[in-house]
């Protein structure tokens, strides 16, 4: 037997083997088989024959226990009580763990020393512009080392970082101007997109890998906050003890502790997220279930404030900026709830709550857009107004499409996978807009 029939026989045998494995829920077998078929199709398109494509695809799927753990992370709610415990699996090799820890420590120390050098030799404006460039390359280096990035991908990442660095440091920004602040705020978004390419191993076009990066980003934020809180308590207690002996820790804290520890903790947080891959329940998606209804209530209150503010040209600019922050929070809640949802679960109450949250957010966004357009028509365009308007338009498109897909999901007319793919497919648009702001806004507004 040869050709497509032989390939189907091999896929069926693999499927049967996976189905018999106790760590994999029966409902997951179909999704795992789809992943295998996608890999086979990609390899066949690259020129491999059926047998070669099958063998390479199975190898890239990884050991079955690793695949099971991956599915446990992706479907944490359904598998929370079905922990992937394989008592007969071999003990992990300690040498790779030690090597990874050494790489993490090296990158953390490198990031800390680089930031320390920046605080010493750069002025305030230059440090603000380059802060992301002082830390992000070390995060990308760690993730790239772990993913064993191809040389072509490494070269592309380096080229992107160099171009960004040249733009930030050669543009004649006015230190008191808006374009400098906008460039400083949007450059980290571009850099984080480059880190995402490193995290995905260069496979940034894959929706699954992009969603993995979304999960990684949420977990990283939670871990970093926890480390910051713990570190703050530790430093505070230490400073209190030193003060009792007449020693002032504040100069050392400003000159060494904070410049070294703050960026170093970011690398440690990234390592912790990577190291906890065997933990089934993720933190960030769980928090979305708590904050989704609370954020909906907050948005309703904000909508009332905007609706009763009177003339939209008099709406406080800081209030509009705060609204953008709230809308970004809504976007994060939608992303992380989608990342944690079981795609096979029937639509339920929480999906309805999500739709309500998105609809209210869209209403707030519409009012904010109206206020921004009114202010631009009344007072003219400025870098801040145009940047805020562009972000709100992007958010409006993202949220509107999400609301439509959520409605279709609740009415059983759309598959969950369509909603999931939309979330990850739209993310590069934000990175492209951030790059446009950094590169184009300075010359367009005469660097004011």
UniProtKB/TrEMBL annotation:
Membrane-crossing ranges are 125-145, 154-173, 179-200, 221-244, 256-274, 286-307, 319-340, 352-374, 386-407, 427-447
Q: Which InterPro entries match?
A: Perm_prefix_1
Q: Does the keyword Membrane apply?
A: yes
Asked if the record carries the keyword Transmembrane helix, the reply is yes
Alphabetically ordered keywords of this record:
Membrane, Transmembrane, Transmembrane helix
Domain of life (superkingdom): Bacteria
- Look up the signal peptide feature and give its range: none
Please report the name of this protein according to its UniProt entry. Answer: Permease prefix domain 1-containing protein
Q: Which organism is it from?
A: Isoptericola haloaureus
* Source lineage: Bacteria, Bacillati, Actinomycetota, Actinomycetes, Micrococcales
């Amino acid at each position: 037997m040869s050709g497509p029939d032989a390939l189907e026989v091999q896929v069926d045998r693999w499927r049967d083997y996976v189905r018999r494995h106790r760590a994999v829920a029966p409902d997951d077998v179909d999704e795992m088989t789809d992943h295998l078929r996608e890999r086979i199709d990609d390899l066949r398109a690259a020129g491999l024959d059926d047998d070669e494509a099958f063998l390479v695809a199975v190898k890239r799927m990884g050991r079955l226990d690793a695949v099971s753990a991956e599915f446990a992370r992706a479907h944490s709610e359904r598998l929370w009580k079905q922990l992937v415990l394989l008592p007969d699996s071999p003990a992990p090799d300690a040498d790779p763990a030690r090597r990874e820890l050494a790489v993490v420590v090296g990158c953390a120390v490198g990031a800390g020393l680089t930031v320390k050098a920046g605080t010493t030799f750069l002025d305030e404006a230059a440090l603000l512009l380059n802060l992301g460039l002082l830390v992000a390359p070390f995060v990308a280096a760690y993730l790239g080392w772990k993913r064993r990035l191809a040389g072509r991908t490494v070269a592309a990442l380096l080229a992107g970082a160099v171009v960004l660095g040249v733009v930030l440091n050669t543009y004649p920004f006015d230190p008191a101007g808006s374009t400098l602040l906008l460039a400083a705020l949007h450059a980290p978004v571009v850099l984080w997109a480059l880190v995402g390419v490193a995290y995905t191993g260069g496979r940034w076009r894959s929706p699954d890998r992009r969603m993995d990066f979304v999960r990684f980003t949420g977990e990283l934020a939670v871990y970093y906050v926890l480390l910051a809180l713990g570190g703050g308590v530790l430093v505070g207690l230490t400073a209190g003890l030193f003060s009792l002996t007449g020693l002032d820790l504040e100069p050392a804290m400003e000159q060494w502790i904070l410049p070294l520890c703050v960026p170093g903790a970011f690398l440690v947080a990234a390592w912790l997220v990577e190291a906890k891959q065997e933990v089934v329940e993720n933190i960030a998606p769980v928090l979305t279930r708590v904050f989704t209804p609370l954020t909906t209530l907050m948005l309703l209150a904000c909508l009332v404030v905007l609706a009763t503010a009177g003339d939209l040209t008099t709406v406080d600019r800081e209030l509009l900026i705060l609204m953008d922050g709230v809308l970004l929070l809504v976007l994060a809640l939608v992303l992380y709830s989608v990342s944690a949802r079981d795609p096979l679960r029937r639509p339920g109450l929480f999906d309805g709550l999500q739709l309500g949250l998105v609809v209210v957010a869209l209403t707030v966004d519409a009012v904010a857009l109206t206020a921004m357009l009114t202010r631009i028509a009344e007072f003219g365009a400025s870098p801040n107004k145009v940047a805020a308007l562009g972000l709100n338009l992007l958010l409006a498109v993202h949220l509107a499409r999400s609301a439509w897909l959520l409605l279709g999901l609740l009415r059983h007319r759309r598959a969950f996978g369509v909603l999931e793919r939309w979330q990850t497919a739209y993310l590069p648009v934000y990175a492209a807009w951030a790059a446009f702001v950094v590169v184009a806004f300075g010359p367009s507004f005469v660097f004011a």
